[in-house]
């Protein structure tokens, strides 16, 4: 039986353009459900991509815009066999594998060292040019000492969830 979230997609309308996501509810049902729930509540609207590293990833979903915020709860890891390659959507977390909440990242290159250590739960199905634009924008040194703080952070204006039409 297919998962209730099979066929659900998201459109991230950003100040740099739109990106479309498709989810993997068969591989990470809790993560898909969490992202969809937060998006439908408007949690991501107005947030920014606060950490971007060309050839690696762009990270967003922090309500504070700093990488230190979340939804006030965490979810259990759902590591799976999805490879962290360009366009893959995965959850950010602290050193605790079960510490993901709302922050996510989209790979901008091959990040195989993250495989089975971070929960991949979807991928870009449109807007690869927008991913490239966000990932390659100028950055400065951030709080962690890496050159990943966007000089002009790209804003997530709205995340729209689309559910497949019910079958008659």
How is the secondary structure organized here?
Blueprint: E1 9-14, E2 17-23, H1 29-40, E3 51-53, E4 57-60, E5 88-91, E6 104-107, E7 120-126, H2 128-135, E8 139-141, E9 147-150, E10 156-162
Antiparallel strand pairs: 1-2, 1-10, 2-7, 3-4, 4-6, 5-6, 5-7, 8-9
Structural description of this entry:
With 168 residues, the protein is of the alpha+beta class. Helix content is 12%, strand content 29%. It is built from 2 helices and 10 strands, in the order ββαβββββαβββ.
Reported by name, the CATH topology is: Cyclophilin
What CATH first level would be assigned? Answer: Mainly Beta
Q: Quick check: average pLDDT?
A: 95
- Number of spatially distinct domains: 1
The CATH architecture comes to: Beta Barrel
The proportion of strand residues reads 25-35%
Strand order of the largest sheet: 3-4-6-5-7-2-1-10
Low-confidence stretches: none
Taking all Cα atoms into account, the compactness measure Rg is: 15 Å
**Helix count, per DSSP?**
2
Order of helices and strands: EEHEEEEEHEEE
Biggest beta sheet summary: 8 strands, antiparallel
CATH homologous superfamily designation: Cyclophilin-like
Cα distance spanning the termini: 17 Å
Percent range for helical residues?
A: 10-25%
Record field, number of beta strands? 10
- Backbone structural class: alpha+beta
* Rough outline: globular
